[in-house]
């Protein structure tokens, strides 16, 4: 090791010029500089002191030949404490790992010392592969105890992403596999093999060994699932579809130390910025996931990232750290070797393109394990000590969401995370990110997860603010939109829905979407009551139903569900013209879709699998009668026949004392339209200051309609022209000509 040089500036004397000796500001400036340099000097001396102490400790361990008692050797106590303090506070440099690993695994010292050494081996930057390979060789001679072996495997799994290169480590695959029958080591051996496994590792002899009666523990299922992806012809057993946790947590002894080292060294990332793919700025090194979001270049590739084609062709793979352009992706798309840090895929557009083009199940399987484990361990409201890292967890969830948008599909590990965490969520922490992730829940699992997601979400929805309610409705609208887009894409590319192993048949799709729409209708009805029919809330609700009303024609889905009465009537009687206009447009689209469906039923000779129920047509007709009676014929109180409608007896209406109560909700007297009516009268009858709305009739009624259409009420126009029988077009034109 080379001794670190202290700053040259700290050894130079402070120069004071005569011309500035009486200048107080200059004196303060010089004093400030002097103080800063003093701090730098002290820091440099401290670093040198610890560096010297570490050198002495490493030399001591190099010279250890015989078994040394920890209690009787002050030197061992001193140097062991030095390694522990430096390793756990700031991390160890790469050059010391070879010696310290050799000492810990050679059996020269007691298990207590070996255990403390292994727990202090936290890297400041990277771990040389040669050090790891030489340490693995000590497992062959059985010098260390089984407890030390187990701790070493846990250390290797935890530090796997810090190893600078893994080519020689992959060559030891068979050696690690030989430990799989050790009941104590098996869970961690399977985890390590899972990280190391490539397609060529799925050999028949290894599969044969695994198919022996070892049980179906989660760690074996994980390894078998990866083998089944690579060599399906050799796997005849059936594996469970999903597991909550594949492997035991290996990183507990080192987690706090790794986080402390990263916080201290976050400004000095060990990986060159030139090697960070898909990011413009170096990511934070504070948390576990941030270490996985960059692609580290191996030591064999660091010096030459561009011109290494001969070596790549010889090895028949193309390392992703050399992937810099889309043309390289196209040329090497069938020989890419993905990194062990599957999180780096999320921030690399080229690798996301690869996932879109090549449906490699092994990538999704590794990403599923890594993401599920990370979300479970780092959730800021499920794990108390993670609460201080909320902003970083937000950034991580944002990265996942952007990757899902890029791929146009959700990750199954995110579904499981939402199922587990939503019952514990307060609705505030990472709100935007959680709701965005919810919008990518796959359709196939919605029915299963309804109790895990909808129930806790409804509790939060009813007890939270207006803003939260609107955010949830927007999220559910995007979820519906994503499902319908998924349906359209699959419909264009597949003749039927039996191509997928998941529950994605057309009937499953219809049932899942119907459940979502009914759920939104229920929470919307309750929310409008809680918020006194708030116009802002009503906008988001009607925005959702703008998608629902057009599902048959726009998305070719044989499903139409009318909004509940608790949504329809507040919109019809709203005091806001935007809501009323939006409702008119929605009812126009419902009519267009229902008419098209009816025509298809009559013209197609082949019996259709799905037909709209008579209840749908009945509900639509009831709503149309209410709307026409309200806005046009002024008989809504007499004609509305919906069970939850506004039908009232004349005697009761007279007791209200309202004059012309029959006309109270037509397009002139409606509270949402009175402003338009008053402005129209100002233009049509400028000499009449009384605002006599009864003047709007006959020709003025038609003029008033034209005025409303000119104000941008397109929904009202479409509804009137499609659902109301007016005078003939010739009569309208004649009336206009007379006026002119």
From TrEMBL:
Major subcellular location class: nucleus
InterPro entries recorded: CENP-I (IPR012485)
Region feature Disordered, mapped onto this chain: 1-50
Record field: compositional bias (Polar residues): 32-46
GO biological-process terms attached to the record: CENP-A containing chromatin assembly; mitotic sister chromatid segregation
Swiss-Prot/TrEMBL keywords: Centromere, Chromosome, Nucleus
GO CC, one annotated term: inner kinetochore
Compositionally biased spans, kind Basic residues: 1-14
This protein's record includes keyword Iron: no
Entry's localization field: Chromosome, Centromere; Nucleus
One Pfam family in the UniProt entry: CENP-I
Compositionally biased spans, kind Basic and acidic residues: 15-31
Keyword Nucleus listed: yes
Family: Belongs to the CENP-I/CTF3 family.
UniProt name for this protein: CENPI protein
Species annotation: Asarcornis scutulata
């Amino acid at each position: 090791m080379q001794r670190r040089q202290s700053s040259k500036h700290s050894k130079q004397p402070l120069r004071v010029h005569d011309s500035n000796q009486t200048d107080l500001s200059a004196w303060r400036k010089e004093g400030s500089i002097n103080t800063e340099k003093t701090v730098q000097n002290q820091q440099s001396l401290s670093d040198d002191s610890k560096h010297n102490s570490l050198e002495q400790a490493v030399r001591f361990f190099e010279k250890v030949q015989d078994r040394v008692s920890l209690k009787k050797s002050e030197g061992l106590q001193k140097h062991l404490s030095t390694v522990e303090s430096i390793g756990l506070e700031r991390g160890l440099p790469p050059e010391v790992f070879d010696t310290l690993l050799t000492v810990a695994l050679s059996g020269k010292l007691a298990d207590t010392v070996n255990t403390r050494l292994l727990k202090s081996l936290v890297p400041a930057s990277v771990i040389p592969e040669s050090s790891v390979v030489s340490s693995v060789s000590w497992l062959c001679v059985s010098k260390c105890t089984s407890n030390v072996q187990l701790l070493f495997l846990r250390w290797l799994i935890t530090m796997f992403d810090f190893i600078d290169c893994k080519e020689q480590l992959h060559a030891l695959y068979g050696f690690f596999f030989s430990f799989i029958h050790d009941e104590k080591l098996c869970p961690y051996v399977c985890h390590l093999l899972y990280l190391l496994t490539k397609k060529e590792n799925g050999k028949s002899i290894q599969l044969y060994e695994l198919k022996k009666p070892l049980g179906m523990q989660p760690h074996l299922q994980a390894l078998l699932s990866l083998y089944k992806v690579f060599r399906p012809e050799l796997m005849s057993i059936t594996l469970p579809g999903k597991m909550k946790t594949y492997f035991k947590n290996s990183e507990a002894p080192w987690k706090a130390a790794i986080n402390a080292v990263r916080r201290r060294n976050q400004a000095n990332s060990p990986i060159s910025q030139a090697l960070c793919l898909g990011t413009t700025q170096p990511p934070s090194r504070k948390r576990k996931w941030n270490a996985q979001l960059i692609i580290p270049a191996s030591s064999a590739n660091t010096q030459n990232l561009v011109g290494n084609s001969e070596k790549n062709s010889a090895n028949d793979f193309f390392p992703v750290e050399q992937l810099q352009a889309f043309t390289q992706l196209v040329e090497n798309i069938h020989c890419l070797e993905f990194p062990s840090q599957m999180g780096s895929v999320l921030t690399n557009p080229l690798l996301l393109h690869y996932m879109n083009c090549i449906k490699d199940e092994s990538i999704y399987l590794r990403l599923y394990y890594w993401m599920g484990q990370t979300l479970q361990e780092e959730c800021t409201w499920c794990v108390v000590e993670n609460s201080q890292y909320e902003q970083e967890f937000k950034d991580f969830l944002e990265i996942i969401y952007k990757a899902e948008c890029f791929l146009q599909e959700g990750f199954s590990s995110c579904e499981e995370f939402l199922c587990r965490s939503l019952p514990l969520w307060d609705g505030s922490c990472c709100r935007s990110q959680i709701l965005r992730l919810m919008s990518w829940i796959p359709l196939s699992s919605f029915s299963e997860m309804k109790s895990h997601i909808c129930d806790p979400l409804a509790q939060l929805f009813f007890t939270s603010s207006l803003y939260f309610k609107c955010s949830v409705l927007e999220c559910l609208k995007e979820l519906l939109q994503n499902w319908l887009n998924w349906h359209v894409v699959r419909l264009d590319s597949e003749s039927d829905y039996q191509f997928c192993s998941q529950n994605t048949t057309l009937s499953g799709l219809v049932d899942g979407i119907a459940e979502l729409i009914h759920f939104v209708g229920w929470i919307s009805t309750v929310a409008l009551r809680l918020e006194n029919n708030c116009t802002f809330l009503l906008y988001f609700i009607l925005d959702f139903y703008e998608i629902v009303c057009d599902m048959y024609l726009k998305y070719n889905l044989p499903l139409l569900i009318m909004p509940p009465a608790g949504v329809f009537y507040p919109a019809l009687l709203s005091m806001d013209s935007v809501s009323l206009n939006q409702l008119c447009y929605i009812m126009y689209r419902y009519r267009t879709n229902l008419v098209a469906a009816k025509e298809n039923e009559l013209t197609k000779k082949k019996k259709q699998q799905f037909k709209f129920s008579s209840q749908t047509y009945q509900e639509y007709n009831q709503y149309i009668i209410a709307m026409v009676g309200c806005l046009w014929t002024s008989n809504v109180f007499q004609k509305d026949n919906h069970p939850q409608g506004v039908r009232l007896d004349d005697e009761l209406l007279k007791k209200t004392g309202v004059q012309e109560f029959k006309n109270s909700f037509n397009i002139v007297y409606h509270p949402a339209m009175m402003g338009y009516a008053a402005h129209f009268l100002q233009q049509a009858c400028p000499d009449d200051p009384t605002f006599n709305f009864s003047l709007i009739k006959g020709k003025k009624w038609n003029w008033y309609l034209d005025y409303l259409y000119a104000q941008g009420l397109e929904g009202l126009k479409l509804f009137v022209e499609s659902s109301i029988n007016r005078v003939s077009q010739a009569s309208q034109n004649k009336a206009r000509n007379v006026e002119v």
